Amino acid sequence: MTDPSSPADHIRCPVTGYTLPSDGTPLQPSPFFAERRQDGRVHPLRYADGHVGKLVTDHALARAVLSDQRFSQLPRRFPLGPADPAPPSVTADDLRALASGDLLILDGAKHDRIRKTIRSRFTVKAARGHRETIRAIAAEQVDILLAQPKPADLTEHVAEPISARVHAHVLGIPAERVQDYIQHYVHGSSAQATVDFVREIVGYRRTEPGDNVISDLVDSGLTDDEVVGLAAVLMSSGRDSVAYTIATTTVALLTHPEQRQRLTDNPSVAPAVIEEFMRYSTMFVALFPRTATEDLEIDGVRFQAGDSVSVSPVSANRDAERFPEPERFDLGRDAFGHLAFGFGPHGCAGQQLARVEITEAIGALFSRVPSLALVDAEQLRPLPFAHVVPTYRAGAVVVDW
Ligand code: HEM
């Protein structure tokens, strides 16, 4: 068996299929993906329990699979270990609550019913309604960065705190508990302490409702379990992804001076270039695997009932059939249609909010700190995957100014 952490791990084992390659960086995907796109539409992928499923690398098939309801989110199986992830060590009541509201393990009508309860809070209009608050948070964090001794880590002082503070604000975590939220979700704490925190915030919003997501949830007609489960998913989903994208896009701009010039020459283009930021800095090497619920065919490609299927947004977003010269970071291109937020019924629920956060953070950094320069970034080297779902974390981005 090949060592999954070895750079050569994308060499196919004739019996067990490929493992996901670990030689890509967040800005430069492994050559494995370009090779696979030349080499057919689906590719054997070995999952952690030893079974072989299918990897989708081209944009058209990726989009078609993600929008096809004949694929289920269950059973939850992963291409990276552990084969059968142990459930979090929390009480049985908490485990039941977490499962009942976890959008990423629900299908069909139940998924739609639960997701509908948060729709109005995450529309374009709702996200833009947070712009002034987000702008103020971004300005404060840039000030904090500039108060550090040089050089300093932009991920620690800008990317992580903006994502955590905005998440807390939108969800309805009271100001005096934001540091606890950061402790649980950025620095990490036990599963039980984290779910206790979620229950406490939900309880608080039952008695102190406000203009925020969790206050809506407690009034939405969901069961108590579903409210806790959905609140838990929302507290964790996307927080790290926003931090990752701010950090990684900054590295992309600092290593592409001509694109940085384009942005600073014309700051009003910032909202339009967010799609290229997302495409070029894609965080998900593969999404949560889907399972075919029946024998089916899409665009001439056959899937059998029970097949595990992993879609790679990193690969789809570098597909030359969809994005000409895909390796070029180009703020002038139309990157609309990228799959960095997934697609279909499980496409990212918070993507409009994420767009505003990333635009404001990048805008604040590059307009306020014209001398910003890269000293070093973990993103420039292969980063270990952050999760059993193969994503990247925001590495340290050391900057000078
Ligand atoms: C740059 C930032 C973000 C990225 C790259 C991102 C990416 C994604 C992706 C790829 C998925 C789909 C996973 C799959 O299909 O397997 C997803 C789902 C989800 N995201 Fe995001 N996300 C981001 C920000 C956010 C934010 C700010 C929130 C707000 C709470 C959020 C909440 C969610 C939720 C709740 C789901 C599950 C949707 C469902 O299953 O119906 N995300 N995200």
What does this protein look like?
This protein is of the alpha+beta class and about 400 residues long. It has one domain (about 5-400): Orthogonal Bundle (Cytochrome p450), CATH 1.10.630.10. Helix content is about 45%, strand content about 10%. It has helices at about 30-35, 60-65, 90-100, 110-115, 125-130, 130-145, 155-170, 180-190, 190-205, 215-220, 225-235, 240-255, 255-265, 270-280, 315, 350-370; strands spanning about 40-45, 50-55, 70, 150-155, 290, 295-300, 300-305, 310, 375, 395-400. Strand 1 and strand 2 form a beta hairpin. The longest helix is centred in the middle third of the chain and has 18 residues, at about 155-170. It is globular and about 55 Å long. It starts with about 30 loop residues before the first helix and ends with a strand. The structure holds protoporphyrin IX containing FE (HEM). Protoporphyrin IX containing FE (HEM) binds near residues 103, 350 and 354.
What order do the helices and strands come in, and which of them pair?
Layout: H1 31-37, E1 42-46, E2 52-56, H2 59-66, E3 71-72, H3 92-100, H4 108-116, H5 124-129, H6 131-146, E4 152-153, H7 154-171, H8 178-188, H9 191-207, H10 213-218, H11 224-236, H12 239-254, H13 257-265, H14 270-280, E5 290-292, E6 296-298, E7 301-303, E8 308-311, H15 313-316, H16 351-368, E9 373-377, E10 397-400
Parallel strand pairs: 2-8
Antiparallel strand pairs: 1-2, 3-5, 4-10, 5-8, 6-7, 9-10
Helix pairs in contact: 3-11, 6-7, 6-16, 7-8, 7-12, 9-11, 12-16, 14-16
